[in-house]
């Protein structure tokens, strides 16, 4: 399972006289990540290194540190802490002691991981969006069964012969719900999409 941060997170640590400040926040779009970095980067700091991940999309930047010693370890920390939809910025003020390639990787990856480890997070739940036609005679009965599947009624359009429902349902229930609804309605309910749209939402406590 992947997790999304609930708020802006901050973590600070000194490593061999260098100061590392980590800032992390949930994002929905790559532009959110770039705006976050632009807003929080400290120009007078020695380096502003970062990484973000949104599903299969990711980017990272070493900002002048030796290649592979900053941005990629930050991304690995994101993946190691099972986080998604997140940007992590690690700001370094050089303290006069060189850390070496391995030391830099441990410092950037370690501080990013610790920030995410301590962060308040919510699980990201895979959802599927289903579209169906429901006769008026079956609507009340089927509406009463939505909660059993943790399904939500996203939209409904009323027509002459029934209602077009858009449902958001956990992907683990995306096969069971149509089967039950069709059986309960004796086949009067029809699901309109052969290829339902899948996506993810954050489960908020």
From TrEMBL:
Record-annotated Impact N-terminal domain positions: 16-116
Gene Ontology annotations for the cellular component aspect, listed alphabetically: cytoplasm
Domain UPF0029: 132-188
Molecular function in Gene Ontology: guanyl ribonucleotide binding; ribonucleoside triphosphate phosphatase activity
Species this chain originates from: Candidatus Paenalcaligenes intestinipullorum
InterPro entries: EFG_III/V, Impact, Impact_N, Impact_N_sf, Ribosomal_Su5_D2-typ_SF, UPF0029_Impact_C
Record family assignment: Belongs to the IMPACT family.
GO process terms (BP): regulation of translational initiation
Full protein name: IMPACT family protein
Pfam families documented for this protein: DUF1949, Impact_N
